[in-house]
Design brief:
Layout: H1 7-11, E1 14-17, E2 20-24, H2 25-32, H3 36-45, E3 55-57, H4 60-69, E4 84-87, H5 88-97, H6 101-156
Antiparallel strand pairs: 1-2, 2-4, 3-4
Length: 171
């Protein structure tokens, strides 16, 4: 079946809030092809499925920061409603609440993006660790190389021949 939403589009809708990668309710509603109000009503009817680590409401300051940094949320600027943010687990749980063919396909696409992002972060952590090890090795090698150059410099110094003393010597 053809993917309804491109992965690049979904990636742009994932934000880092409270150290969690999340999607905002209105973006999810758009991807799922339902009104935001309908999505939030479905969540409210099944609230036990959405603990705090699956979904949380943004604070006013978080909402303002989102509006300031993302043009797509301009219309939220004067809204009294604070958006809900869904973590990866919350998005997965949405698939059981919104049971349509489009929701299933959209959910599969979103899960693939989250997995891809996790792999990228993991790769970066591994790379950063390896780079750190390499820097330590280079530092050690730098010290050893400096010692070698210092030894070579000492060897390059021409020893002074002892000066012959002028005059008569006792020996």
């Amino acid at each position: 079946m053809k993917t309804l939403v491109r992965q690049a589009t979904i990636e742009k809708k994932i934000f880092l809030i409270r150290n969690h990668r999340v999607m905002i309710d209105r973006d999810l509603a758009e991807v799922y092809g339902v009104p935001t109000k309908a999505l939030n009503q479905a969540v409210k009817r099944n609230i036990k499925r959405f603990p705090d680590d699956f979904m949380f409401s943004l604070t006013k300051s978080e909402k303002n920061e989102l509006v300031t940094n993302c043009d797509q949320f301009r219309s939220l600027k004067y809204s009294s409603v604070t958006p809900k943010a869904f973590t990866e687990q919350g998005v997965a749980m949405l698939s059981s609440v919104l049971n349509s063919e489009r929701a299933i396909q959209a959910n599969i696409a979103i899960m693939r993006v989250f997995v891809k992002m996790r792999e990228i972060v993991s790769t970066h952590k591994d790379l950063a660790y390896k780079l750190s090890l390499l820097e330590k090795k280079i530092e050690k090698h730098d010290i050893e190389i400096r010692a070698i150059f210092e030894a070579i410099r000492r060897l390059m110094i021409v020893p002074e021949k002892p000066k012959r003393r002028i005059g008569f010597h006792d020996s």
